[in-house]
Amino acid sequence: MSSQLPRERTAGETVLSVENLRTAFFTDKETIRAVDGVSFDVREGETVGIVGESGSGKSVTARSIMGLIKSPGRVLDGAVNFRDRDVLSRLVDSNRKRTADVAGLSGAERADAVDEDDFAFVEEWDGDEPADGYVDVTRVPDSALRTLRGNGIAMIFQDPLSSLNPVYTVGNQIKEALRLHQGLRGQEATEEAINLLEAVSIPDAKRRVTEYPHQFSGGMRQRAVIAMALACEPKLLICDEPTTALDVTIQAQILELLSDIQEERGLSIVFITHDMGVMAEIADRLNVMYAGEIVETAPVEEVFENPKHPYTQGLLESIPGRHPGEDRLRTIEGDVPTPNEPATDCRFSPRCPEAFAECESVHPVSVPVNEEASDHTAACLLYPEDQSRESAVETHRRRGEDSEEALNE
Amino acid sequence: MSRWSYFLRRLVLSIPVILFGTTIVFMLVRLGPIDPAAAIVGMGNPQGIERIREQLGLTQPLWQQYIDFMINMFTLDLGQSWVIQPGRDAYSLVASYAPRTIWLGFWSVVIALFIGIPLGFYAGLNPNTGGDYFASFGGIVWRAMPNFWLAILLVSVLVQSQDLLFGFNWSNWLVTTDILSPPNLRFLSTPLEAITNPIDWWVSTGANGSFLAALKQIAPAAIVLGSASMGNEMRIGRTAILETINSDYVETARAKGVSGRSLIWKHVFRNALIPLVPIITGEAFLLVGGSVLVETVFAINGIGYLFYQAALNADLPLLGALMFIFILITVFTNILQDLLYTLIDPRVGYESE
Q: Can you tell me which family this protein belongs to (chain B) (predicted)?
């Protein structure tokens, strides 16, 4: 089905762009702003890492991208724009009424053309078919989400031991994805399932396809889960700590498998982990999250060689083996705060070794760390580092007020 | 070890269980304070008692009696009644009393199953809503009411239904039936008439009884007998659904684009059924014990009632035979449970590979 449509796209085009995403959980006691204004882009064939401590909002970001947030959680605002011609044309076909025609429009005209409940945005038409455009996942209704899930964006979860249904064979679960997204059934589907198991390097795939998850080892199960995700033929793969539950040798194999698959199929990957070492292996770009916000973004080498945000510096310092000969491992004192209020200060300031007075009254926004580095940003009052401290703080204060006004409109 | 050889092993293992259970039955019956000879001829006749004891074989050594008893039971020679209907085969007694108990047991399982599980699944799929609270609270109340109390309460309400339920008369509703009488099951012996003579078979109240009349007569007793299991199934069903629906594999299925209905039916229900299996089969034990009580209150002369009478009248062979049958029922329900497990859950029998 999907392979018949041409995929003529220049390398490096943006596949996913998350803009100012806010997801909150509403409990009786408080509102937890698990994701509070996160923005990042994923380009074709690229691996974008999201790294952070437990509770920093990594997984909630991933689930928001998939539209998997369940009550009492809700995506408050922001956009998750997913660009894929197949998904777009299928969603447009079945939801003409909720499609916004924004071809050739910009700015105010564009805002006028968009209705309250539109979720598909077509920027270019090819006859009656949309040629280019995107889908805003946060606006897609539940009934249409399953067109998107799997086929557009697939996801691999943390624990391979529990992410396969124990009462169905591995083959059955892969075939379910094949039936949903490629329309394969019967013998054809079985053969394709065997091919997929072979593609993820599971030996003796013919026999394995009829076995149950409990007959697989942990690493094998994660391979089977990856095969299941591939069966959907996704454009973007979200990996939520896929190697955390595995031991180190298996971890390396899975990482290698993921990069092989990425190269073969031109997948884009969003990779979530708390393990800096894993990040160094797999990611092209890195986003460092802290308390629901992205505090630093840069290409992965840049982060490791030249970390700017004090939090990133602390994270790197705390990797075991960085300071051989020391008696104790370095840590960052304190815990991640629960973000239950809109930020008016720097959330990291209580733990920050470089905090100064303004850190408690000005909320830092993402700025380029200096004039030359266009792809290295940090949300810290110390930057841009080529400005004086007063003018840097002023920049943050002004931009913070601007975005607040934009929010209130 | 495959699932099926696991099942076969369970089947073989049930033999020593039956042996052991039957031995206990022998001890209970023969070593207890029951003297059947006295029950037959009366206390004032010592010579008569002695003669009867000899006739019944009670003077033989105990081990001899034990071996005879075990051989008889395992060759399915259940003996004859001594007291209740002297000389009548235990077989024929059971055959004439059993249908009513089976009819009662069947409906008490079915009613509980078809009300309890859907209600529990509904509550689990809509957690913390008004409907959930209503069903959950109902489940707890239903579970908490003891059989004997609920039975008496229900009988008294049904008898006075004309006064209590705003003129609704249970006896005359749909078909006229008595409240406290055993159901007439003679229609079951002519199953073909269900098609050839449907009105008589299904609804009329002729000499052979009908399906509807028998169902209506058994319904109050079946609801009482099934009440505890209904509450249990409801509560376990709710928990099972909640646990399954929040599990990782359901999240994974959702993430690969499985739609709502298929998600519930394929990925949630089958897993949620696993903890329900022992609850459902566990009912059989309740039914055996509970039927004695409920049959007595509702005046249904079934197996439970027969057992009660046999115990009161010291009818040893009948008592032993009935207990042996209860053991068989219990063991076979357990085997059925294993079979269901083997069918639903592929992990069964895996650990010894």
A: Belongs to the binding-protein-dependent transport system permease family.
CATH code at position B202: 1.10.3720.10
pLDDT tops 90 at residue A237: yes
What is the least distance, in Å, from the CA of B280 to any CA of chain A? 20
Residue A197, judged by CB atoms within 10 A of its CB (0-12, 13-18, 19+), counts as buried
Residues of B with CB under 8 A from a CB of A: 247-260, 266-267, 270-271, 274, 344-347, 350
Burial of A109 (0-12, 13-18, 19+ CB in 10 A): exposed
Per residue in A155-170, pLDDT (tens digit) is 998 888 889 999 999 9
CB A93 within 8 A of CB A81: no
A150 and B255 within 8 Å at the Cβ level: the answer is yes
User: Is a pLDDT exceeding 90 seen at residue B241?
Assistant: yes
Indicate whether A335 pLDDT > 90. Answer: no
A contacts of B3 (beta carbons < 8 Å): none
Nearest to A155 among B255, B259, B274 (CB): B255
Q: Which residue has the tokens 């720097």?
A: A346
Give a yes or no: residue B320 inside a domain. Answer: no
Mean pLDDT value of segment B124-141? 89
> B31: burial class by Cβ within 10 Å (0-12, 13-18, 19+)?
exposed
Residue B2 in any domain: the answer is no
Tokens representing B278 are 């022992």
Evaluate the omega torsion of the peptide bond into residue A72 and state whether it is cis, within 30 degrees of 0: yes
Give the DSSP H/E element, type plus range, for residue A6.
Answer: none
Within a 10 A sphere around the Cβ of A94, how many other Cβ atoms? 12
Contact B255, B77 (CB under 8 A): no
At residue A148, the 3 state secondary structure works out as helix
CA angle A163, A168, A173 (to 5 degrees): 65
Give the least confident one: A76-85, B96-105, B206-215, B305-314.
Answer: B206-215
Range of the domain at B211: 90-312
Most confident of A400-404, B320-324, B342-346: B320-324
Question: B258 to chain A: which residues are within 8 Å by CB?
Answer: 146, 176, 180
Does residue A54 contact residue A291 with C-beta atoms inside 8 Å? no
Q: What's the sign of the alpha-carbon dihedral A210, A216, A218, A219?
A: negative
What is the tens place of the pLDDT at every residue in A104-143?
777 777 777 787 778 888 888 887 788 888 888 888 888 8
A174-178, A214-218, B40-44, B301-305, range with the lowest pLDDT: B40-44
Q: Tell me whether residue B47 is in a domain.
A: no
Residue with the two structure tokens 């995506």: A75
DSSP assignment of B256-296, as one string?
TT--HHHIIIIIIIHHHHTTHHHHHHHHHHHHHHHHHHHHH
Domain map of chain A by residue range? 164-233, 323-408
What does the pLDDT look like over B24-82, one tens digit per residue? 988 888 877 777 777 777 767 778 788 888 877 777 888 888 888 888 888 888 888 87
The total number of structural domains in chain B stands at 1
pLDDT, mean over chain B:
83
- How far, in Å, CA of A376 to CA of A369, rounded? 6
The CA distance from B351 to the nearest CA of chain A, in Å, is 10
pLDDT tens-digit series, residues A18-28: 999 999 999 88
Strands A129-136 and A153-156: unpaired
β-pairing, A236-240 with A153-156? Answer: parallel
pTM, two decimals, is 0.79
Report A:202-231 residues touching B (Cβ under 8 A).
212, 214-215, 225, 228-229, 231
pLDDT at residue B1 greater than cutoff 60: no
Residue at token pair 């239903």: B142
Q: How far is CA A66 from CA A149, A175, B90, in A?
A: 7, 21, 68
